[in-house]
């Protein structure tokens, strides 16, 4: 089929109007290579590199063409064929893909170096001396919005096991991510606390590693497979019912480990286990979790109705997958900070609740989908249900929230012009929401949104946050 239904969904086609910049055009090029009509040469590589890999073309396709899998194969064949990479490109790739991402201890060292740069005044010195001017504009912009890095990851900070509050629904393994654990350690900690609050034991297997997404998307299939096997072994050994992901880009590869290892007789069964047990944290909370409802909290506190602006969270889906414990009734009505309800239990531990939480403040929120979360993990309703259910928060839909923000892994670094163009269009829509919080569910998208807010002079009115951090703040209160 060459119906073209995918064309309007494709950000690069929308930006350029050129057939070769569309999914249909790219598939035609891939077919020409597969049929031996052309080589996977530099021109082909350029075209493949222009693709964001956002996979918005997949849900739009009536023939269920697995574009993402085709793209990975195409990039793999480019990698095998190319002789054009400069030596420093090869060295940088080898250092990052083989020497850094697979080793969490080295990632932490990098986090420590970044932390030192950020905290010791070195950053001020570098900026003051004008050294950042040596870098291209898009790298300077990224440097300016990098969050505080950490030498210690989530396990080093809070330990590897965290029991559920109240009756245990299931045991969840947290996929902590390599970059996520260095740059967004707080989000990982907040994820653990939310899951505990919702009734899940949380285990964070220490031997897990990078998901392999950057490898797979860059044509380094062997590296991606090795990392996948490490993760499958780690979560199998931990005996978990679910594997929770709070980063759309990582989760999307975990749910496709079965495809990645489909021709590996030894691993394909465990890979399928891993793929079916991986779930987005929003979906886990909405479909299987238990969160304090505002209505219940108000009754417990004798404070009358405090139900927020949104609709109810969807009904329970009690452990629909085989072997997964049936959940208690799922989250209901509007989510409330437990501080309103003395009887509600609260987050406990570091999340001690109390009356000083921020959720009395009425806020307007909006949401940018993570492409991989939406198009691959097919989780777009659960985050919205959660947001609509937060007390005193008005959720406003962002126009074209389902369209890529231009982050796309490292696309904003490798293709800055197209990424910048896509971001500028995105921020026009963001402005119209009038929201104080722009939420998203993937670290790359979050950094891109922070960059957009700075670039468009909106930092006085709006803040970009991970959805988990926002929920944690509203449910557990500020610390
Ligand atoms: S993955 Fe995204 S950018 Fe690439 S062809 Fe599909 S819709 Fe277009
Ligand atoms: S990829 Fe799917 S939607 Fe796009 S042209 Fe082919 S069949 Fe049609």
UniProtKB/TrEMBL annotation:
InterPro entries assigned to the protein according to its UniProt record, in alphabetical order: 4Fe4S_Fe-S-bd, 4Fe4S_Fe_S_CS, Cys_rich_dom, Glc_ox_4Fe-4S, Helical_ferredxn
Cofactor(s) the protein needs: [4Fe-4S] cluster
Catalyzed reaction equations: glycolate + A = glyoxylate + AH2; (R)-lactate + A = pyruvate + AH2
SUPFAM superfamilies for the chain: 4Fe-4S ferredoxins (SSF54862)
Keywords tagged on the record: 4Fe-4S, Electron transport, Iron, Iron-sulfur, Metal-binding, Repeat, Transport
Iron-sulfur is among the record's keywords: yes
Pfam family of the protein (one): Fer4_8
Domain 4Fe-4S ferredoxin-type: 42-65
Name of the molecule in the record: Glycolate oxidase iron-sulfur subunit
GO molecular function: 4 iron, 4 sulfur cluster binding; glycolate dehydrogenase activity; metal ion binding
Keyword flag 4Fe-4S: yes
Function (record text): Component of a complex that catalyzes the oxidation of glycolate to glyoxylate.
EC number: 1.1.99.14
Species the sequence originates in: Paenibacillus sacheonensis
Enzyme class: oxidoreductase
Source taxon at top rank: Bacteria
UniProt cofactor note: Binds 2 [4Fe-4S] clusters.
